[in-house]
Backbone:
């Protein structure tokens, strides 16, 4: 055991050093003109305001939960280690989110500064910005889990509490962040309609910085905390399942995910270094293609290294028996890749998006219907992939050692996430390039440079869409593994959903399932509502500033950017309260009133329904977005035509779909599982009483 | 047993006589002016075209299935009785739908003819039109089930095949009809935009008759066949569960639903006769209120009679033991009532609808978001009611006789549907009043008469919305009972969805659940898409007629109404093919590859997800509709303002939500269950081989 722990810690440490080099490489780049630096400073300050406020709310939440975990989970005994592990998990996740935002809001201006000089330099700077967060967060996750495993090898609750900490941060950064980003974005969009002559990206628009901050909040900190949570959960769940008495696979199987995590970090570093766009690219099309293929090379390299090195590492740890777990891992890896392809099909310029664009000719209503129809249909590949991966991974491990197939499913979840550092780097590249394009636009760069920035940004849109699909599928698979750990912790052997004749247990599970599905719908309702009312408040604030600030409309006076940012931040944190409360209260209510089996039913209900809904929302949103872009490129009457007006409406509906409600469902799916696992000992207690 | 069979057949026969009197009472009324009769004839002919085409497609489908049931279900033996029962179920359901449309398209013009003369007479004529279909279909259902039970007391498959027949018709009339009605409606709406100067309800619009036919197709034949199917399924499932060896409650318990059905018919007749609007009403507000309270009195009377007479009937059949089944029946009855209230809250002029109307001020996108948010939220009461009713009904019967709680759930489903004849009368009143208002509009009646027709119509909108909520909830409860019969037929004792350690069975159930949920999403995608492309074809056809028919624009030449009707009918039948195929193929594929437990998982997945999605769609659609009406009544800038334009877009998106995709999910939920039950013997056969 000891050498695996050392390897994991060593590789993670090496990754942190690697990240430090990346930071240095980014900060060495020039920051561009005075104007660019000024805009960048506003974004940096705005991001800091958001994160400080989030931290304040999160701290209260963390303190309460640390106390609960320490003193209440098993009344009479004090479990300081649970509280500490939870706090560490929170700190690691929030810390990586903070660092990710910090470097992203510095890489953006440097990318913008470089577009005039060097395409390659600009592209790599944006990508390295993303790579910092990717490497640091995954490395911290691995260090945390490995250390806690080494320190408390017989107390799985401690590892699980660490994952619970990551979940809490994801709630704040993904749900709160999602509400922030889309309230700002939709609000800024609508301003043009209510305050004539002030377009979305105009520096006189007081919401413009909030919008740019929002890109970082949603797609850097939000996406990062979400995927990080899945990563930690998948690893922790696999460890718990390996050591569960009913399977008792032994400590080597518990170390397997940690070792694979280390290999994944190495593979990711190789992938990150392999991202080198071709130097000779020129013009929008060529540059976009060069950037896209550079990112693809990175993903292929990391996947290839992972498969080859993973095979030998599995043999090294488990000998001949390592083959089946290794193949289960590959199942997950391949599954993630397939979901990326399907997301691309449904949200890029293929049939479905073209159909939505065409539908715009018959007006906004038909555009909206078509987009929803595409979203509903796009659930087919992810669902089949997750179902297929579950089956294959189970089958493989079950064949190798009968009775332990469940371990295979958990390992498949690990496999989907094992090269996360590379994937996160790709995801976070998007908002940095997007910000760089915004800065280029606002600081009146030459049209060549602006076009280059747009080319980089367009690639980011695709990676962001793929990232969303991937985030959902991995959340689903990780949650499935996590629900299995709930059975271990709650000592449930079977969850029957129907029986003949029926008993109270099945009725409870049935009600649990229904309630779980309901929770996903209610969560979507609340987050959608939060965005529509947040956008409304932004519009009001912008109107107020134009009314009360003389000279603002003429561009003589700087708008009060911070007021808009504070407003959306407050709104986002307030709007998070009820969904956050539901996630805590509903599982507890079901668990205490109907028992652990019913609670397992609830977890599954949330998982099924949330998964379907999240995929629909993410893909509808992405498809509407690109249908609008397709029209703007000149189809169906081009920008300003009737089809374009319809497409703008579809795109605006899609904004909260893909960036707020959809991603928030990932958090819901995972967080209810955490609550169930952490409070499971109490259900047992009540049952005894 | 014999006397209960006689009672059921006697009461059902009496109901048919009652319906004949209603028909005579309607046909005796005057038909109004020449112009009205002309329009009515177009509608009648259009409805006949639609039904003939549907019948042709349905006949092919029926012949194939009769052959399959007769020869293939248990290879080697011939089961003519299964094929015959299926054909009878088809004939009874299609026959009632046909009669319902026939009388509705005659009651509409007479209602329009009466509005100038007598408010009371007009209201009762419209209502009696609905009552004919309600009484006849429920009576035929009861006669069919009772006779088959008496003839084949030891062959439950025969009763189930009868219900399967009803399901097939519901597929054609509800799914096909839903696509027809909304393609015509949305197409007619959009015509105004592309062909300036031709509003939706203008007689020069070639799609206008298709739109009016569509109201009858969707809300008379579609709604009728849907609820009829639930009724027959709930009764048949209860009978099967009562006689299942594991429960073995005895033949009296199998007769209980038939007896309650007879009592429900008596209660419904009492309710129908109690619908007598106050004579003194004058003006829009008063008349609408009078019509609404007259319908409410009818519902209260039928519910009251049902409870009192049901109690004594239960005592008569089961003695003291009858109390708990009776209370389970009341649970369902009360549940249906509560769902009606909640639908009213979310879709009438209360907070949610007002919020959607207000959101229109910020544009169409915010209006759409708010509407979806309301739809998602509106799932809370129906889900909690169905979960609650399930639990209470189970608990009650389980208390009375331990081990047979499942019977209680089935009886609750019967309870929700037992006064169906009255409820259907109320539902079908809506489209008749709607048609009457359309005829009044098109035949240039005086403004007083038009206002009166509008008042009758406005009440119909509310009853239609309530009917939709009720149809979904009763479909869910009836399907739950039906899934239990699948366990009986497939001889499955328990369906485990998770276990520790996991086995292939749970993995199969898990995949089944996921696939079931997926099916609901794909179904919604296909039906939405069918409407958007059907509407597109209607727009093209209207354009063609205006281009090719000189004098049409000036109103000198009659448009070719039938061309539009044939077009949508063909489109609707073609668009039904793929969803219909999926409903057949997917359950069979899951059953044969993963086994009966996995198929049970699929049924549950469809039920959960379909239920949630159907409620969301129905209520979003209803809420958007009334938000638009609220604005048209003068709020937020009134008709023609920005908020109104936004509301029109929301309302158009809502059209296929509430009238096509939402209701189609009811059919999906129920039909997969039928396929599973009917083909269950084959799975067993394959398992043995």
Residues:
């Amino acid at each position: 055991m000891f050498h695996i722990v050392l390897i994991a810690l060593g590789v993670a440490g090496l990754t942190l050093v690697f990240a430090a080099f990346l930071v240095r490489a980014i900060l060495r780049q020039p920051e561009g003109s005075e104007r660019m630096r000024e805009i960048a400073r506003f974004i940096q300050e705005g991001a800091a305001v958001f994160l400080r406020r989030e931290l304040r709310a999160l701290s209260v939440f963390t303190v309460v939960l640390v106390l609960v975990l320490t003193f209440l989970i098993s009344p009479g005994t004090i479990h300081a280690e649970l509280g500490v592990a939870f706090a560490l998990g929170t700190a690691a996740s929030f810390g990586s989110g903070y660092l990710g935002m910090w470097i992203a809001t510095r890489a953006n201006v440097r990318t913008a500064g470089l577009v005039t000089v060097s395409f390659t330099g600009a592209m790599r700077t944006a990508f390295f910005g993303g790579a910092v967060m990717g490497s640091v967060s995954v490395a911290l996750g691995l260090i945390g889990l490995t250390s806690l495993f080494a320190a408390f090898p017989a107390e799985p609750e401690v590892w699980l509490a660490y994952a619970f900490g990551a979940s809490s941060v994801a709630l704040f950064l993904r749900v709160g962040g999602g509400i922030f980003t889309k309230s700002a974005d939709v609000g800024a969009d609508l301003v043009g309609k209510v305050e004539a002559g002030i377009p979305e990206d105009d520096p006189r628009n007081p919401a413009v910085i909030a919008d740019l901050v929002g890109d970082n909040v949603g797609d850097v900190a939000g996406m990062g905390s979400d995927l990080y949570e899945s990563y930690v959960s998948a690893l922790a769940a696999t460890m718990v399942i390996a050591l569960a008495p009913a399977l008792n696979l032994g400590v080597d199987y518990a170390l397997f995910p940690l070792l694979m995590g280390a290999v994944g970090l190495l593979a990711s570093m190789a992938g990150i270094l392999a991202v080198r766009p071709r130097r000779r690219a020129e013009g929008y099309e060529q540059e976009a293609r060069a950037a896209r293929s550079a990112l693809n090379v990175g993903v292929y390299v990391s996947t290839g290294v992972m498969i080859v090195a993973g095979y030998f590492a599995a043999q090294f740890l488990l000998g001949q028996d390592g083959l089946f777990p290794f193949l289960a891992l590959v199942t997950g890896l391949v599954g993630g890749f397939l979901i990326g392809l399907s997301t691309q099909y449904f949200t890029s310029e293929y049939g479905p998006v073209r159909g939505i664009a065409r539908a715009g000719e018959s007006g906004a209503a038909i555009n909206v219907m078509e987009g929803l129809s595409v979203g509903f249909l796009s659930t087919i590949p992810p669902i089949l992939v997750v179902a297929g991966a579950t089956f294959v991974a189970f089958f493989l491990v079950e064949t190798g050692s009968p009775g332990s197939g469940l371990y295979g499913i958990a390992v498949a979840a690990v496999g989907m996430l094992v090269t996360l550092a590379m994937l996160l780097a790709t995801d976070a590249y998007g908002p940095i390039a997007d910000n760089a394009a915004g800065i280029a636009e606002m600081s009146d760069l030459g049209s060549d440079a602006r076009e280059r920035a747009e080319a980089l940004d367009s690639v980011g849109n695709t990676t962001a869409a793929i990232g969303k699909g991937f985030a959902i599928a991995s959340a689903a698979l990780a949650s499935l593994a996590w629900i299995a750990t709930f059975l271990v912790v709650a000592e449930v052997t079977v969850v029957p959903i129907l029986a003949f004749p029926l008993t109270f247990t099945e009725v409870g599970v049935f009600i649990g399932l229904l309630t779980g599905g309901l929770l996903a719908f209610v969560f979507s309702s609340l987050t959608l509502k939060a965005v529509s009312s947040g956008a409304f408040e932004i519009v009001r604030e912008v109107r107020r500033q134009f009314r009360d600030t003389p000279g603002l409309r003429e561009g003589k006076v700087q708008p009060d950017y911070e007021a808009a940012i504070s407003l959306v931040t407050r709104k986002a944190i307030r709007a998070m309260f009820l969904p956050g409360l539901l996630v805590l209260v509903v599982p507890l209510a079901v668990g205490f009133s109907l028992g652990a089996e019913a609670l397992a039913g609830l977890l599954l209900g949330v998982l099924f329904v949330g998964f379907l809904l999240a995929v629909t929302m993410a893909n509808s949103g992405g498809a509407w977005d690109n249908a609008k872009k397709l029209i703007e490129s000149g189809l169906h009457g081009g920008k300003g035509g009737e089809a374009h007006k319809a497409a703008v409406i579809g795109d605006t509906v899609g904004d909260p779909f893909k960036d707020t409600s959809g991603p928030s469902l990932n958090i819901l799916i995972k967080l209810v599982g955490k609550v169930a696992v952490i409070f499971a000992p109490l259900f047992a207690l009540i049952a005894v009483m």
